Hints:
Elements: H1 7-18, E1 21-23, H2 34-40, H3 54-65, E2 74-79, E3 83-88, E4 93-99, E5 110-116, H4 119-134, E6 142-149, H5 150-159, E7 168-177, H6 204-209, H7 224-235, E8 263-266, E9 270-275, E10 290-296, H8 300-306, E11 316-322, H9 328-347, E12 351-356, H10 360-370, E13 377-385, E14 402-404, E15 412-418, E16 422-429, E17 435-443, E18 447-453, E19 466-474, E20 477-485
Antiparallel strand pairs: 1-4, 2-3, 2-5, 3-4, 5-7, 6-7, 8-9, 8-11, 9-10, 11-13, 12-13, 14-15, 15-18, 16-17, 16-19, 19-20
Helix pairs in contact: 3-4, 4-9, 7-9, 8-10
Amino acid sequence: MKHLTFLPALLVLLAPALAQVESLPAPLVNPNSFEIVSNSRYSSHSGFTSDLSDTVLSNILWAMSRLPVFGAWREFYVATPENVYVYDPASHVMTVHLAGNHRYSTNSAFEIGISTETDEEAGLAIQAGLLAGVAFWSESGCTNAGCPMAFAANHANSNWSPNHTINMVDVFGRRTGTGLADSCVALSSDSTLPTPATTGADTFEVLVADLKMDSLFRSEMPTLEELSQVLWAGYGTTPHRPISRQGLTVPSAVARYYLTRRIYLVHDTAVFRYHNRLPPGTNLSTSDHRLELVTSGDRRTELRAACTRLPDAAPAYIVVTVEDTTDAWQTMETGFVAFQSLTQARAMGLGGHITMALTTEERSTIQTALGLPAADFPVVVFSTGQYRTAIEGPAHPARAGLELRSVHGLPARIEYWLPQPGLVEIALSDLAGRTVRTWTENRSEPGLHTATWDGADSNGRPAPAGVYLCEVSSHGVTARSRVTVAR
């Protein structure tokens, strides 16, 4: 037993290495919908204090990492008063990357840097993080605030030793201010678009937890109400008024709102320009919500031919353009819109697909196909409509491939339509993406089948109350939904 005398010394030597990893609390589900946090969002550059909870940090990092990956890499860096960390979405932990305080703002609670191959993809994550912070607000006020800061990104690239260049940094801190607002200011001046809703049924975290893209769509066009809602979520006006301008659902550098007059709806009847300002559409202090005809006729076939990466059956497309494709602020702003559009579509039960990092040739051919102005260069195309699940039975086009009811009790009933017999894999995971339970069923007949989940994890222990994601897979395709467990 003599060798045990070395144990204290060994632990002392290992302590610094063991301390390199910081665990984060599980994501918290707040009561606020995606629509109300989008309508309430505003950025704050200063007035912070540094005492935000780890739960706020956990939710923001988790939300930023739930998005589809488009490039060859995506890295998250976190600067706190103690260290600079690298965040691992798979394990939901932070590992020390650089010891010491290297924040840009001495008053911030934490600063999150995103490194991706394109500024468009960075914009997706930045917007998700901002709204994840707003989701903690209440009607009586806000307890935290954040803002994407270019100066902070410059500081991070010089002081954080990132593996790849950091595109942008979100700076967060505790700050009191105006809280949630449900009043709608996006009112159409010519009745071309219905008034959007500023509140919704699903909470922000529940939507982000299952924020997948779809490539299969049904042919029917979304309703005008649905298209109105997606357009507003992407770039619609809100009650906030930064520097005497009418704020939007997304931030913009010094409230320049680069994408004004540069968002287009490709419908089966025409190509329309979306306006969020009163005619002629350039006064940023005004508010509107309307469509302007650009090109008559159905141009969807031409659009699909111009960019073959688009889902070829989507009934509607939103094309986001910029004036200068070399301006990072402009291209990042298209990522903000893409996140908003995808999340809003999912909130309404629609499918959505983001096509970004368009080539020079694709931009030119899309401009020609849609008859867009020469100074409007396409950067992002968002495809939307009723999604069609790949295991959906052709004889039952109205039946969803997976019908999973949200229940407040157990057992949870899982109904799915199987077009052909075979093995069916069922998996349940928590909001952080951790597997809770999996099992396989062998179905010898096609048709509607039912499975049940008793609420236990793979070790037979009761899973905690909360929201879980369910995936049903068969013949290489997957349908998804969610279930709520209350105890």
